[in-house]
Prior knowledge:
There is one protein chain. This protein is of the alpha+beta class. The chain has 5 helices and 7 strands. The chain has a 5-stranded mixed beta sheet with strand order 4-1-7-5-6. It has a two-stranded antiparallel ribbon with strand order 2-3.
Amino acid sequence: MRIGYGWDSHAFQAGVPLILGGLPFDHPQGLAGHSDGDVLLHALTDALLGAVAAGDIGTFFPPGDPRWKNADSALFLQTALEEVEHAGYKISNVDTTLILAAPKIGPVAEKLRERVAELLAIDPGCVGIKAKTPEGLHQDDVAVAHAVVLLEKFEEGGALEQMAAVAEPQKQMDDVVRKLVDRTTEPVRKPVFNTDDIT
Ligand SMILES: [Zn+2]
């Protein structure tokens, strides 16, 4: 099992489309950033990378790189998922908290949960989306996201691993039998000499 944690923040900016968790929102302000500013996917990406000690989002996608200008953050998440898979893990569940003054997340929370689950290729029942307003923080112009992920070893105790556990002793036994058979069937070398020479 592995645990990962990530968080991110982006400032609201007028005239920018708002995208959260890969979902476009009808809102007068979006999140400023080099990419599409999807604060939720950035926090999730960092949590996934952190869980397998693979660095952070900036390691893979430096903010100064023109290739990631206005980039779809689902691409960042996809890269993190590949790192998780490469390390031999799969997602058990994720939990997230969004902190923002507006828009209200409640009415679209279910849709958001389904979209994030789709991007992570897991069941929506394994995705937690919670939203809070920044009470007392005086940060109404900022969106913050926190994310935790739990990973489990791929096929841990699963069918493939069980097959491998059975196959290994069988393979060792086959090797022993093969060696015994080789020994008994090895042609016996007779000493080669000419008896005439011994006189
Ligand atoms: Zn970000």
